[in-house]
Design brief:
This protein has about 240 residues and is an alpha/beta fold. The chain is built from 8 helices and 9 strands. The two termini are about 15 Å apart.
């Protein structure tokens, strides 16, 4: 049976996939969403959370046998890429959803200052405690522009500080490992957190074999779970 691992983006937890998981399961697939360290049921001091500890957590969630399709959102595309480098034989495909699919030796921080999204100027960084968080005043416009009031209320209650160290880490990726894991990308054309221009820049810098688009804001897992789930299933097919 096909196995899917869902990785959340900044400030979120595995809870953000709560509408998608049952739809994937209804198609006869096994699907799990985890909390990366420092989020949800995986508490940790942000200053002690690095990219390695996040990849460790993702690796532990891979299928014990066979291969896993990894679906990742937003900033934590770096986790999925580093995971593919570490365990290429255990991953069937990585599906990036409006996600930071970076080339080797690049880091998230290389892309954030110039992005024409709502992130520059609205992300507060605690340089001593090594965490960042989005200004609550822009939650809806930046992350949930087309989502329901119930979705926004849920997210507002659950969003947390994001460990900052992973965004400062340069990815160590090789063609021999990361390069042989198939990749697909889902563009979100109304995204105010990872702009469409940035998504297209990332696609120009790293090759994928499949690209799809959804006319949605940053949180399509809330606003369009049916369409997103169907697209993920389609992209997972070999």
């Amino acid at each position: 049976m096909s196995y899917f691992l869902f990785l959340h983006g900044s400030w979120h937890g595995g809870w953000c996939w709560h509408k998608v998981l049952p739809r994937i399961a209804a198609a006869g697939k096994l699907a799990v969403a985890i909390d990366l360290p420092g989020r949800g049921h995986a508490p940790a001091t942000p200053a002690f959370v690095g990219l390695k500890s996040m990849v460790d957590a993702a690796e532990r969630a891979l299928a014990p046998q066979g291969k896993t399709t990894v679906v990742v959102h937003s900033r934590n595309g770096i986790v999925a890429s580093a995971l593919a480098e570490r365990a290429p034989d255990r991953i069937a495909r990585t599906i990036y959803l409006a996600s930071f699919m970076l080339p080797a030796e690049r880091r998230v921080l290389d892309y954030l200052p110039d992005d024409q999204s709502m992130m520059p100027g609205n992300v507060a960084i605690n340089r001593l405690a090594l965490w960042d968080r989005l200004n609550p005043k822009v939650y809806r416009e930046a992350l949930y522009a087309d989502c329901s009031e119930d979705d926004v209320a849920l997210a507002t209650a659950l969003l947390v500080r994001e460990p900052a160290r992973p965004a400062l880490t340069r990815l160590r990726l090789s063609q021999d490992d990361y390069g042989r894991v198939p990749r697909a990308y889902i563009r979100l054309t109304q995204d105010n957190a990872v702009s469409l221009a940035l998504q297209d820049r990332l696609l120009a810098e790293t090759k994928v074999d499949r690209v799809e688009s959804i006319e949605a804001s940053h949180s399509a897992y809330f606003s369009q779970p049916d369409k997103l789930s169907q697209m993920i299933l389609k992209l997972s097919e070999s």
